[in-house]
Design a protein that fits this description.
mainly alpha, 68% helix
Amino acid sequence: MLNIKAWLWTLGCWSAISFLVCVVWGLVTPEALHMHQVLESVLPGFRWLSLGSVLLGFIESFLYGAYAGLLFVPLHNFFWRRWGASDGGPESAR
């Protein structure tokens, strides 16, 4: 069984940090290698490159990751209760 709070924060932070890595990548590489078009199409309101836009993209990225955790954990736990504990694995021996 997974803890929803831990996964929500883990995936939210992972997404936000990944966004920052993409922004830094865009600042240090030639324009042909930039990801700004993808970021602009995936993150509503994000435009390359202003402080307010980066802050908005950071928040939106965190929320996308948190949303993924919010869906993934209950689904995982549902299927784990249904099939996982009875498959003969180490947890079913307890």
